[in-house]
Amino acid sequence: MEWIQLFIEQYALFCLIGVVVGVLSGLLGIGGGIVLVPMLHAILMAKGFSADVAFHMALATSMACIVFTSLSSIAAHHKNQNIVWPYVWAMVPMAFVGSLLATLVAIHLNALYLTLFFAAFTFYAATQLFLDRKPSQHKVPGKVEISLVAMLIGVISALVSIGGGTLTVPYLAMRNVSVKQAIGTSAVLGFPIALASTVSYLQDAIRQSAHAPDSFGLLYLPAIMLIAPFSVLCAPAGVALTRRLPVKVLKRIFAVFLMAVSLNLLWSQLA
């Protein structure tokens, strides 16, 4: 059967990526961009797209996939009572605004310094989580602080295509929110960030008169149609793992993940 062979050769990898992204999304409260972007970039280059076009398509396609993945992760975390809704209502509007603005003006911004700052912060936060250091006292953030932090998370996430969880989880953990609730809350925050970016990419696609094969603007449709459903199906499995793993183990898994993200970003900018 030729169509089966074609599917295996060209599209089965998208299904596997969807499984990995779904599990990581539920387990760590991340969107999955750190996995999606480099893999999509490599696949699109292998399909004949130029390096620059492939990179921008990977960013846009990743954000579109995260919209669906985050919804599944949110539903599973809500069922397990892992979401701190007061933080959600305070952070979501500014995260959405920050992500939307960053996507619209990204071409005019030098993301190098933001990326380096992000890498340094995540490595510091990872160290604190790995060593299981806790603040000496509980400090509830004020409205101004949490609004500014949420906007910063939205801006940086959109610029470097990293799920908001890599910033949200360590921030909430430093505010004495339990790591499981920080992961659940960050999953909610990932939705408006991805949605704002996707809306911007869709507007750009609508303005274009011509599109590459199998794409709509910068959105690569086969990847979205295959990655999204598999990630949606597998996100609850990642959430289930958060219930089975001890808190200290969960913290260290997330810490190692953050260290890998920060080192990868530093390497990509300084290499």
TrEMBL record:
Signal peptide: none annotated. It is found in: Cell membrane; Membrane. The chain crosses the membrane at residues 12-41, 53-75, 87-107, 113-131, 152-173, 219-241, 253-270. The keyword Iron-sulfur does not apply. Its main location: membrane. The keyword Membrane applies. Pfam families: TauE (PF01925). It is a multi-pass membrane protein. InterPro entries: TM_pro_TauE-like (IPR002781). Keywords: Cell membrane, Membrane, Transmembrane, Transmembrane helix. Belongs to the 4-toluene sulfonate uptake permease (TSUP) (TC 2.A.102) family. This is Probable membrane transporter protein.
